[in-house]
User: Fold this.
Amino acid sequence: MSSKIVKWIIAIVIGIVSIYGIYRLVKDIYWKFYQEVSLAKDSQFQFVNEQIQTLPYITNDYISNWGAFGDFVGGTLNPLLTFISVCLLLYTLYQNKKSLDFNSEELALSRKAQQDSAKSQQLIQKTQNLQQFDSLFFSLLNQFKHQQDNLCSLNENDKSKVDKIYRSIFVDGYKLELEDKRYQLLQHQELNQYFICLFQLFKLINMKINRIPNTSNKIEEWGDFTLEKQYTNILRSLIPPKLQQLLFLNTYTEFDEYRWYLSYYSFFEHMPFKDLVRNNVILIDLLIISKFYKLDSNHLYGDYQVFGNSIYFDKLLSESCYSEFMKSEDLFFSAWGFIENKFFNFKSIVCFFNSVPLSNLDKEICYQYYLINLKNEELRIEVIDVFRNSLEPKLFPRSREKVQLKHILFKNYGFQIQMEGFEKLDFYIYDEISVLLTTPNRSRNLGINETNQADFLEIELKENPL
Assistant:
């Protein structure tokens, strides 16, 4: 039996008992007393049907006693009835409050149901929009991939259009200003169309994916940033490193919105900083361009948000001689300008290496000097052989010889000068400069080199124009 039925039974029983008690009280006491008092008058006799009838003798004391009793009943019954009335009033208020609470709960449930319905509609709409976005995105991505295949397809010489553009800008034109390199890059219309298509993909991802209001200061918690990042990661995985470096050059200036997308999604997180034609060589142009991305201070990851958590960039900052430059406010507009300021700020360098014999026939021991001069932005190298006990050059065909310069390669530790005859001078530019000479050992098996460290190093710096 439910509690509701039990409550109804108890209420009915109490109601019946109360009605019966009131009935007995009225009938047996009040009604009887009322009849007797209504028959009692000032006299003891009354004519009824022309006959005198004798009424019970009712004294004034008798009536006053009942009056006192009536006052007593009224005095005790009125507070009781008042209390019952107050209880009923409070019960009524309680029932009204309960009804209001119930209505409020119903309204809250109704409101929640409407919100859930609205969220469901938003989710359905978002899913439909995402499906439409996927269709448009992958359609544009196919066009983008087709353009990239045309750029990267190999010709009969096993070279692609990208290889030729890359070499002409970063290898052959290493002394050009950044703006000249970028102008040269913009002359390739097919490559420009490729970059424009990539920009439209960025714009599509950023604008078409629905996002909630940005209530956090952390960029990774912005709306659907994670979903956007997944699509841009798909894009990045398709772009080869050479095209990434060319894109890095293309957007370093003017294209503010393009550069914002690249920084916002840390698009160059996997871009290497080495020359992809000559491995293990730092591409100075990329270091110079990076400082222009640092000027964009509207991003939450900091100065170099464009690199994200790049292991290449972290290694460049921690294990190379370029970390001081990357952390400074210095700005250059050409790789050669940076090289002259960082490395070639001298008139001449004299390197003295261990004593060596001139030939197997000549037992006289000589010291070997490498004299490096910088004139008109050109390096000139001479090798001078000096007798141990003489400061004058030996009168010998090899006593003073000009060496043909082949390449200057820039590495994490500094730079390397490659000369004819496979000789190499490695300059380590840290707190102090040290030089290593690597020469092929022709008296032994090919491929085995000898390395000597300079015992004496003298540098004559350029005069400060200021």
The longest helix spans residues 60-152. The first strand starts at residue 45 and ends at 48.
